[in-house]
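Cross-check.
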Amino acid sequence: MAHIDKLKEEIGWLKIVFAILIATAISLAAWVIQNYGEANRVLTIGGAAAVLLIITIIIRINSVAYQKIDKLEDL
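Predicted model, tokenized:
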């Protein structure tokens, strides 16, 4: 497999992971917002912390994808 094809595959996988994490973050944030007053405080805080962690991972995946796109551009 050529290097360019490998980079394209890696970018494709990063797009899939990115989309899954976006959907997860949105769903979890919606749950936290809807159940803010009713849910156990530990669950609410845990959910909010998980949303922040997922957003951090999303930002990291985004930067890795852009680095790979820049590397692809150089080839």
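DSSP finds two helices and no strands in the chain. The mean pLDDT is 92. Passed to J.P. for a second look.
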